[in-house]
Design a protein that fits this description.
Length: 324
């Protein structure tokens, strides 16, 4: 068992997510940084999509109820076991009554703590991930609070201490990211100058960034072409008749502050979208702190598929390195 002494700023149970229900309004959920989750799990010998703790900006204080193997991956911080610094990206042992604490995240916004055997809570629609807006999954469908007790499953024969990675297979958390975008579905609603300025400007992550969406500020306002709004669209130029949102869609409410929809976002709505961040770059967004910077680059489908293939090759190298 694990006991949360302090919950951190926002700690939830997440696994690889629950795909297959977006068409009925239930989002993917799961870890915002899928690579970091998989890294932490593979370090302790779990299946890579097993349930772990996702911690935002400030990680929890945890007391252990027995001997376990633990690994921490993601944002740049210092885990401390009974006050002694422990490594990131490496599995290490803990004993009953040990306490794990963390410094503030120096860079990156999300940390993943995996335990050999994985966290055991009931599955909902095939996943243990927390979807707080729907109040289901995880532990009672909510963020964790002080005093919560979590069960950990039996470790497998693959669990061992001292498994680690470094270099390109670890998680990088720069404070400025380049995010690649496939244009559409509604970029034609913007003026040519607005589209150019969207890609030319450097944007700043707003304080509202969370699992539902990342809001960006600081760029020039984006002007929409004049039109007679269709019935049901509303008078705001950024409004449309409701449409489905792909994962990673970039909304443009009032043309002021773009919002990238992430893993807990709704599946449709009434704002125009200028494009969709490619799947290979969604993990990057998860590690952006408020006031970090981002620039957007318009690419085509061939580039997007090449980026996805590169991400898959990196994950294959990680599996090869850690499943020995």
């Amino acid at each position: 068992m694990l006991k949360l002494i302090k919950p951190g700023l926002s700690t939830t149970i997440q696994d690889a997510g629950r795909p297959g229900y977006y068409h009925v309004g239930i989002p993917l959920s799961g870890a915002l940084d899928q690579y970091a989750l998989r890294l932490a799990n593979l370090l302790v010998g779990n299946e890579e999509g097993a349930a772990a703790l996702e911690c935002t900006l400030l990680a929890p204080e945890i007391e252990f109820g027995g001997n376990m193997i633990v690994a921490v991956a993601g944002a740049d911080t210092t885990p401390k076991l009974n006050g002694t610094a422990m490594p990131l990206n490496e599995s290490f042992p803990v004993r009953a009554a040990d306490r794990l604490t963390f410094d503030f995240m120096r860079s990156g916004a999300r940390l993943y703590i995996a335990f050999a055997g994985g966290i055991h809570v009931p599955t909902v629609l095939g996943s243990r991930s927390t979807y707080a807006l729907g109040a289901f999954g995880g532990l009672q469908g909510r963020r964790l609070i002080a005093g919560d007790m979590l069960a950990v499953g039996a470790r497998t024969s693959r669990a061992r201490v001292g498994r680690r990675v470094e270099g390109e297979l670890s998680v990088s958390c720069p404070k400025e990211q380049v995010l690649r975008v496939l244009p559409g579905l509604y970029d034609h609603r913007l003026s040519e100058e607005a589209v150019e300025s969207f890609y030319a400007d450097t944007w700043t992550v707003g304080s509202e960034a969370d699992r539902t969406g990342y809001r960006f500020k600081g760029g020039r306002p984006l002007r929409f072409l004049d039109r007679t709004p269709p019935f049901g669209a509303g008078s705001d130029p950024s409004n449309i008749v409701d449409a489905g949102y792909p994962y990673g869609s970039i909304q443009l409410p009032a043309g002021q502050e773009p919002i990238i929809l992430h893993r807990d976002a709704v599946s449709g709505g009434g704002y125009a979208t200028i494009g969709t961040v490619i799947s290979a770059d969604m993990d990057k967004i998860a590690q952006l702190q408020p006031n970090n910077k981002a620039r957007f680059v318009c690419i085509d489908m061939c580039d997007a598929l090449a980026a996805r293939a590169a991400a898959q090759r990196r994950l294959a190298l990680l599996r090869e390195a850690l499943q020995r």
